[in-house]
Amino acid sequence: MKNLYVGNLPHSTTESELRAAFEVHGAVEKVSIVTDRDTGRARGFAFVEMTNPGEADKAVAALNGTELGGRTLTINEAKPKTDRPKSGGQRFGGGGGGRGRDDYRGHARQPREPRW
C-alpha cells in the first residue's frame, strides 16, 4: 500500500476523475480530495492510496508533470505529518488570552497620570 500526494489540482476535479487517471496504472484503494472545512470547497490537492507500491511508483513517473484541467500536476509519495519540515514560524492561538491590557511582555510599565 502506498499513499500518493497529488498537488495543484483544479478545484473542479472529482474523485471519479482522479480515480480514472490513476487506475490506468494500477489498483486504487482510496481517493481523498482535501476540502476546506469552513467552505467545503476543494483546496487543490488530494491523496490517492494505491494497493501495489510498484504500480504507485509507475503512476508517479507517468503522471507527475502532466496537465489536468489546464494545471500541471505535482505527484509524489505522501510523507507522514511528522516527517515534513515545518515551514515558517510557530503558530500561536489567536488573541493573547489571559494577559492584561497593560502587560508589555516583561517591559516595565510606564507610570500614568491620574484621570481626574
Characterization of this structure:
There is one protein chain. This protein is of the alpha+beta class. It has helices at residues 15-23, 53-63; strands spanning 2-7, 28-35, 42-50, 67-68, 71-72, 74-77. It has a domain at 2-80: RRM (RNA recognition motif) domain (Alpha-Beta Plaits, 2-Layer Sandwich), CATH 3.30.70.330. The chain contains 2 helices and 6 strands; from the N terminus they run βαββαβββ. The strands form 2 sheets. It has a 4-stranded antiparallel beta sheet. The longest helix is centred in the middle third of the chain and has 11 residues, at 53-63. It is elongated, with a radius of gyration of 23 Å.
Helix content: 10-25%
Shape: elongated
What name does CATH use for the topology of the domain at 2-80? Alpha-Beta Plaits
The total count of strands amounts to 6
What's the SSE blueprint?
Elements: E1 2-7, H1 15-23, E2 28-35, E3 42-50, H2 53-63, E4 67-68, E5 71-72, E6 74-77
Antiparallel strand pairs: 1-3, 1-6, 2-3, 4-5
List keywords for this structure.
single chain; 116 residues; alpha+beta; Alpha-Beta Plaits; four-stranded antiparallel β-sheet; two-stranded antiparallel sheet; 2 helices; elongated
